[in-house]
Design a protein that fits this description.
Structural class: mainly alpha
Strand content: under 5%
InterPro entries: OHCU_decarboxylase, OHCU_decarboxylase-1, OHCU_decarboxylase_sf
Number of strands: 0
Enzyme class: lyase
GO molecular function: 2-oxo-4-hydroxy-4-carboxy-5-ureidoimidazoline decarboxylase activity
CATH class: Mainly Alpha
Catalytic activity: 5-hydroxy-2-oxo-4-ureido-2,5-dihydro-1H-imidazole-5-carboxylate + H(+) = (S)-allantoin + CO2
Order of helices and strands: HHHHHHHHH
Pathway: Purine metabolism; urate degradation; (S)-allantoin from urate: step 3/3
Number of domains: 1
Length: 167
Amino acid sequence: MPFTITQLNQMSQAEFVAALGSVFEDTPAIAHAAWNQRPFADVKELHQRMVDVVQHESEAAQLKLVRAHPDLASKAKMAEASVKEQAGVGLDRLSPEEFEQFQDLNSRYKEKFGFPFIVAVRNHTKTSILAAFRDRLQNTASQELQQALTEIAEIARFRLQDLVQSE
């Protein structure tokens, strides 16, 4: 059910977390912390305040957030939003060859960086995701952590747009 900014601004902390706790994958603590920064003028400000919470976290907390995300094209259990996002670009309908490519790249990426490859799939196609995988495997761990956090912020922006309606 979509919410308005006015409704979100008037919610108790528990209601706010229940409404927006899934915006950042399995990390409702971000919504919990952002609630303290109400009122929000609009969804853009709400998003920025939530991103600010992430940016001010310790590296360990940021890594925990990154590691909460599922592998792309995985058959593992994942959050409903992730299932819909991945299905939107066809990652739930891969050929056996495509599935093998994703599994190989997921494995190589996690081995190198210690966390899953994260990309805002709504900005991509299967082909561009595979290209990004290959390109980003050339990055350093520090570069990839920052890129993962940037992608997570974009994913959160899309999820907020789905959850918050104009007034």
